[in-house]
Structures
1.
Amino acid sequence: MSKSLMISLTQGASDPDRATVAFVVANASVASDVETVVFLSTEGVRWSQKGAADGVHETGFKALKELMADFAEFGGKIYVCSPCFKKRGLDENNLIDGAAIVGGAKAVEFLTNGASCLSY
């Protein structure tokens, strides 16, 4: 069984519940000593920006900003789709901790080395 997991998050602020659950699962994974990557693509790349998760707090969960900070603190990686990021004119100097802008090849490399994948 693979000891790595990619969580693909495509939704932005229009679906904060999906983003919250993605990071809840990501935290559970990294806390279980699984190499974990959250791949932000399409509208999901907006979560890579400092301040984007401010004020997002779905009932029954930690605030999204806390979940994301915990994930980075515990060693999780956040891959941000480069073309999606550029298309939206986002600021590379405003990335959250743990985030790196990558091309699709980086995600493919991670997945083809045996990682499982969940999508939100």
Note: DSSP finds four helices and five strands in the chain.
2.
Amino acid sequence: MRVVLDTNQYASALLKPESNSARLIALAAEGHITLIISQDILAEIRRVLAYPKLQKLHGGPEEEIEQFIRKTEKIAIVTPGELAIDVITADCSDNIILACAVEGNADCIVSGDHHLKDLGAFQGIDILDAAAFLEILET
């Protein structure tokens, strides 16, 4: 199954190693799912994890964030990032998730963001939270 994780999933995985989000990244590392990502999403992960509030929570140096991002790049398919989508106007950064999913022929987007989850699906790509996605995988 080809999956795009929203930026909030990466932040959750780094901050909470026992979270559902961390389980998803582990599943990708083990080859049970195929992680799809774009350079735009990688840049957003860097930006979000550099927020002072999040830095305070994870307490790790910038190098730890870069290691996390390099590991993610190694286990993921990186899309060319050529597609532009403008569907979500309330939070334009969510559009990079949709574009990556379409460009990478994803089966699913996993997100905790209501702007994405409220869509339910986009161009035949289901949008689920991490718990719901893991439940599907286990059945």
Note: The first strand starts at residue 2 and ends at 5.
3.
Amino acid sequence: MVTKLDRLGRSTVELLTTLNAWCDERINFVAVEQGIDTSTAAGRMICSMLAAVAEFERSLIAERTSSALAARRARGITGGRPPVVDAEKLARADRLIEAGATLTDAAAAIGVGRSTLARHRASRTPA
């Protein structure tokens, strides 16, 4: 027993596979809030229709999200966190390291972690 049908599966195929496996084991599904009970033919039909609608809704959300991200990229807007190390901080860390500071000390001086500084230094150094 679950409260809603969409809590049972992410796609129609997944949901129906689960329900069919339960049916083979003579286990009935009940969605309390939606009044679905697979022990009846009507309940099984409603369950299948609601599963298809739920999958359609998830697909629409995914399409809208993809479209919005593509539009943002087209306008030059990217997602994610802003970089914490800029060219000026990296140059300062380089000067500290050249003067004998450890990577850990240089990272602390510019306000980032050691691994962050190491990653930024490695990404701009040709291999």
Note: The chain has two domains: 5-74, 87-124.
